[in-house]
Amino acid sequence: MAGQSRKWTILVATIWIQAFTGTNFDFSAYSSSLKSVLGISQVQLNYLAVASDLGKALAWSSGFALLHLPVPTVLLIAAIMGLAGYGAQWLVIRSFISLPYFVVFLLCLLAGNSICWFNTVSFVLCIRNFPVNRPIALALTISYNGVSAAIYHLAARSITLSSSGSVYLLLNAIAPLFASIAALPPILRQPEPRPLDQEAANRDAVVFLFLNILAIVIGIYLLSMDSLKFTSLDIYRALFAGAIIFMILPLCIPGIIYARDWAKRTIHSSFRLEGPGFNLIDNDDLDLTKELLVHEKEKGDHGDGFELEEQDGNYLFSRIRGYFGQLWSYILGVDKLAYLGDEHNVSRLVRRVDFWLYFMGYFCGGTVGLVYSNNMGQILQSVGGTSGASSIVSLYSSFSFFGRLLSAWPDYSRGWMSFARTGSLAMALVPTPIAFFILIASGSTARMVYISTALIALSSGFIFAATVSVTAELFGPNAFGVNHNILITNIPIGSLVYGSIAALIYDLNGRENDGAIVCMGAACYRTTFVWPSGMHCALMAKGLVNPLVHQAAHINLGRAELGRSRLLAKRWLDLTGHGQEDCVQEASHTACWVGVRYEYVWVQNV
């Protein structure tokens, strides 16, 4: 009981870590001030944003640290890195110290790397404590990372009513440190991992449902508060206090765990929620799965996994049908990904066509949204936006939060609709080109910038959160840390490519004003919006086929489970000599498979 309670307090701790460490989302709030103080061009400012993203290319350092250091130590190191990186920039922007451009570049890199350390700690805590509900736990905690800028916006307004970029840098430096200190007590009392039965998994699913409902309420609260303008510091302080109270509310979850009998009697009788459909192949069954898949290949299939029979003795027709089957199988890539959860080391990963398609999908999807977030303050300024960068940053943060929450939808919908997780990624790409087309067609008015920002944030937020689970699902959970860090190397690459193009177009269309180049009008970014829109359309066309690829992998996994259940049933019969004959014949019902599996293991142990 106490272990279950501590498990949920650790989840709340990861929520706090994610909610107060998304410091890369408010770059637009202080970028103009930093540009003015340093006296740099838009291209040089873009390099500072690239430096922050370049810290993600060093994300492997956090995984290496976790191999040799305890989690609390890694968490504190991340907080110190953020304090040093953002704190020194705050001193520069307040003119307390003067640093050369290259040193500021290194400070941005250090601050960006600290975010990766925080994320790695959160991912590891979720994976260790929620092995069955891992995708839902990851989606929930990652979603709070998208709300950081909205919380910082309320905090900044509670300090000063003016749009001061230095306040955001100060918050970036100290807020993650305070959140880390608050998260230490539950992390230090981490429970020992225990196996989770189906009843406990269903109960956890109900708790996660409550947590997601609470998260939606928090997002609506922050979004509505951003749309209101007040002239009193006291009002903003009260609103910020309300946001902090909302962040503390998830601590009530341990009380729900203690009242599990009540939850089972009143809630489970009305709502039968099954655990997520992310349960991959168990480690003890992995060899058996591979054996069954190899056996299927040896049966003489023609590439699509089904035996082709000659119809009416027409040999030519069968051969033509076989050739088309092989061609379709090659297009779908069934031969590239045998089944979900297949472990990939680095050398095998980089040889996969699936991985590089996935890599390009992230490069053209989530990375574009990240670069847009780095430049949206300048975009709003170029079209005459008068409300300041802080409001659009808060808007982006709130909708990114909702997008991250939506990434758990495939796991909750498995009971009534089966859809490959990569298909949900393809659908998540749709809002981004729509947003860019709106900006192009409307001439980039301030109102259209806000609408487009909301769409891009919703899309990129979904992609950021979903890829964490997709990486583990496609290429194996055991090597997730290494594989996902390889994937996110496209963030600094994309930031450099996209950001440099946007900055060059901005400077070419701008005029010098008080020593800095300022661009006004739709021409500043119109060309920048055109070619990402075309890339997204091409990427979505590819995304229509990709779900079929991994749906075929689901079929292979289902066949492996069917064959495995039949084999276990036969072994059970050999050991006991009675019962479960129906399972041997059918072995397609989940209850049959689970029952045979556990009874066989029990008999084998006896």
TrEMBL record:
<protein>
    <submittedName>
        <fullName>Uncharacterized protein</fullName>
    </submittedName>
</protein>
<feature type="transmembrane region" description="Helical">
    <location>
        <begin position="448"/>
        <end position="466"/>
    </location>
</feature>
<feature type="domain" description="NFD4 C-terminal">
    <location>
        <begin position="343"/>
        <end position="539"/>
    </location>
</feature>
<keyword id="KW-0472">Membrane</keyword>
<feature type="transmembrane region" description="Helical">
    <location>
        <begin position="419"/>
        <end position="441"/>
    </location>
</feature>
<feature type="domain" description="Nodulin-like">
    <location>
        <begin position="7"/>
        <end position="254"/>
    </location>
</feature>
<dbReference type="InterPro" id="IPR036259">
    <property type="entry name" value="MFS_trans_sf"/>
</dbReference>
<dbReference type="InterPro" id="IPR056555">
    <property type="entry name" value="NFD4_C"/>
</dbReference>
<feature type="transmembrane region" description="Helical">
    <location>
        <begin position="355"/>
        <end position="372"/>
    </location>
</feature>
<dbReference type="InterPro" id="IPR010658">
    <property type="entry name" value="Nodulin-like"/>
</dbReference>
<feature type="transmembrane region" description="Helical">
    <location>
        <begin position="136"/>
        <end position="155"/>
    </location>
</feature>
<feature type="transmembrane region" description="Helical">
    <location>
        <begin position="167"/>
        <end position="185"/>
    </location>
</feature>
<feature type="transmembrane region" description="Helical">
    <location>
        <begin position="235"/>
        <end position="259"/>
    </location>
</feature>
<feature type="transmembrane region" description="Helical">
    <location>
        <begin position="486"/>
        <end position="506"/>
    </location>
</feature>
<keyword id="KW-1133">Transmembrane helix</keyword>
<feature type="transmembrane region" description="Helical">
    <location>
        <begin position="63"/>
        <end position="87"/>
    </location>
</feature>
<dbReference type="Pfam" id="PF06813">
    <property type="entry name" value="Nodulin-like"/>
</dbReference>
<keyword id="KW-0812">Transmembrane</keyword>
<dbReference type="Pfam" id="PF23262">
    <property type="entry name" value="NFD4_C"/>
</dbReference>
<dbReference type="GO" id="GO:0016020">
    <property type="term" value="C:membrane"/>
</dbReference>
<feature type="transmembrane region" description="Helical">
    <location>
        <begin position="205"/>
        <end position="223"/>
    </location>
</feature>
<feature type="transmembrane region" description="Helical">
    <location>
        <begin position="99"/>
        <end position="124"/>
    </location>
</feature>
